[in-house]
Hints:
alpha+beta, 21 strands, ten-stranded mixed beta sheet
Amino acid sequence: MTPDNSAALRRRLVEELVHEDLLHDSDVLRAAGAVPRETFLGRAVYLPSDPPGVTVWTPTRRADVPAEEWMRLTYRNATWVTQIDGVLAEDAAGPVTGGTPTSSSTLPGLILWMIEQARVAAGTRALVIGAGTGLSTAYVCEIAGEDTTTAIETDPGVAERARAALAEAGYEPTLITGDGLRGHADRAPYDVVLAFCSMRHVPYGLLRQVRKGGTLLVTLAGWGFGHGLVLLIADGEGGARGRFLPGYTSFMMARTHDRPPHGPFELLPGEQRPSRIDPALLDDWNGRYVAQLAAPSAERLGAGDDQILLDVATGSQARTRAAEGGDGWTVIQRGPLKLWDAVEESVARWQAHGSPHLSEFGMTITPHAQRVWLGTPDGPGWMLPV
């Protein structure tokens, strides 16, 4: 496919994003039309099987797909997984059953919308955390300038691949291989920090690299698999405040914040009682996040009536099931942390305020604590693990 065809597909993508009312900033729109995504998609992607059942990830190589079909796939506003459990798609020996995505090319519409929300502009000193394929970094370079753009990628192989793609596309930002949550103090202070990974809290060392009035756009997540995108304004004194944004945004967890590994575990007997909430509320995007705030050290397993919360450090467990006869639900708890008690209290507070979307929540960071609140800063709140 010729460069003219590629440009036409980019223009079509821009028109689609404008029609969906996602993008408005002229510089962001110009970047969307200028950056060739095909350069960053690499030689292969993993395509998932359709649910139900365990996902099978099949490596699909560019060389094996007709050029026009590959380009149409490239310019779909979709996320394409490029690495599973540390193995790039181009290096995979065959399909992978199960497995965890560890790098991807995020859908362009989301990247560009986040860049616009974070207020990236010409001359902005920007830090991109989670460079991935390099596409997000290229967009930032196109808007802010490569001299003021810094990106960090934790995986050496992914970082090298991104560096080569950026160079091929004509961009030479500062690209560091390392832990993005530590930032890069040598290039600070930053006007904007954009994280394309999730974190359990905002590291203070990273926050201190942002100038007063600078923005951080980060996804706060946890081991309960709840995600919320929050836009924070730094106060220059080790703190920040902001609100969660509309929509449903999730990213892979930063590797240093991911849940602790564990082997097989046994569900043991414990105290049994009726559940005061429907366990399926944890399948709801907002309910799941509210539950996670109450039990931040617990990994969430299961779904529907059969939820499982497991705290590896203390051995605490909670599991639910439909009550016999189909009238309500039963919860069984074990260990020093009453995980389901905490979840019930948290969900009840949320329901008492009308069960709102996360965009009704905000966050305040001080040098001593990080608090998520509902409604206003003095409203109901939850402390994040720091």
